[in-house]
Write a structure and sequence with these properties.
By secondary structure, the protein is mainly alpha-helical. The chain folds into two domains: about 30 residues; about 90 residues, no CATH class. About 60% of the residues lie in helices and about 10% in strands. It is built from five helices and three strands; from the N terminus they run αααβββαα. It has a three-stranded antiparallel beta sheet with strand order 1-2-3. Helix 4 packs across helix 5. It is globular and about 35 Å long. The protein starts with a helix and ends in a 10-residue tail after the last helix.
């Protein structure tokens, strides 16, 4: 009986610590709850893009995802095979997911990482990765 109580106490402590860590991490995540989607996109674009690219980023995000920071599309294409595009810029996970982890230490699902990756792509290769919306 004492072992069970001790085990239960350890488990409760572990869950409490894990819950606190999860809450702290949640507090550090970008949350656009108090802003309109456009304001959130504007804020992120100003944080990650060079000033001359901010207006382009806001327009492209509207065209790609309707300013939805957590947009997702996936499927199979005859030419490219399986695809998954995520975030406001609909960045390809198979193409850019590993590079996002390497450069920014996070997933393309994170709006900060999505914007940082889009800014990196534009600064290194121009807007050609958005042939329709990025014109």
């Amino acid at each position: 009986m004492i072992r069970r109580l001790a085990l239960a106490g350890c488990l409760a402590t572990l869950l409490t610590v894990r819950g606190a860590s999860a809450q702290e991490a949640e507090g550090q995540r970008y949350t656009p709850a108090s802003r309109s989607p456009r304001e959130a996109v504007q804020e992120l674009a100003e944080a990650h893009f060079a000033p001359e690219w901010v207006a382009w980023a806001v327009r492209t995000s509207l065209c790609e995802s309707g300013h939805d920071l957590y947009a997702q599309s996936s499927g199979v294409d005859r030419v490219y095979g399986w695809y998954q595009h995520v975030g406001a810029f609909q960045i390809s996970v198979p193409t850019w997911g590993a590079k996002a982890w390497e450069l920014f230490g996070g997933s393309l699902w994170d709006p900060d990482v999505n914007f940082a990756m889009a800014a990196w792509i534009v600064s290194h290769d121009g807007p050609r990765h958005w042939p329709v919306c990025g014109r």
